Amino acid sequence: MISTGDLKKGVVFEMDKQLFQVMDYQHLKIGRGSAQVRMRLRNVRTGAVIDRTVQAGEKWPRVRLERRNVQYLYEDPPNHVFMDQETYDQITLTPEQLGDARSYLKDGIELEILTHEGESIGVELPITVDLRIEQTEPGFRGDTASGGTKPATLESGLVVNVPLFVNVGETIRVDTRSGTYLERVS
Question: Cys-Cys link to 48, which of 43, 66, 106, 138 (CB 3.0-4.6 A)?
């Protein structure tokens, strides 16, 4: 069983005979009443996002997920195709199953696919991903009115704020947990 004290981002559990992944949670203690936990959950099968508030200490069945190493091959609109590294089987996932992970996919990236009772339900990204900058405005010396950053569009379509010295064609490292720039790779 998993309780509200065990919650963290990315945990999958079963509630109302559905599988949900925790996107965000917040512990609330209000005056005289008991503590509550406000959660933002994503249904792993349908991709629907719901907000739920529960009493602290509530418990749900923990879901056992199997992980397999896969490689991203290509997009077959609207789906995405992966190859199992051991069996070379191709696995197709929908945009709803992938969620925000679509923003970090590039050809050849290796990651883990999550399965529950033989059904593929999503992927787990590495902590960081290296992506090439496709489009950004040139940074000008002394232009720090915006905090020294500028928006950049990456090869996957993701837009992140980067320092002024980073230019088009360079590769940067992005944190997949927060979607932020970490460092310049080349």
Answer: 43
Distance CA 99, CA 97 (A): 6
User: pLDDT of 24-69, one tens digit each?
Assistant: 888 888 887 788 989 999 888 777 889 999 888 889 888 888 999 9
Classify burial at 41, counting beta carbons within 10 Å of its beta carbon; exposed 0-12, middle 13-18, buried 19 or more: buried
On the 0-12 / 13-18 / 19+ scale of CB atoms within 10 A, 80 is buried
Instruction: Please report, in angstroms and rounded to a whole number, the separation of the first and last CA atoms in the chain.
Output: 46
CA distance 61 to 34: 23
Of 90, 50, 95, 53, give the one whose Cα is nearest residue 73.
Answer: 90
Whether this model's pTM surpasses 0.90: no
Beta carbons of 83 and 69 less than 8 angstroms apart: no
Give the up-direction half-sphere exposure of residue 169: CA atoms within 13 A in the CB hemisphere. 1
What's the token pair of residue 37? 């936990």
Please report the domains of the chain, with CATH numbers, ordered by start residue: 2-60 (2.30.30.30), 66-124 (2.40.50.140), 128-184 (2.40.50.140)
Residue 61: φ, ψ to 5°: -65, 135
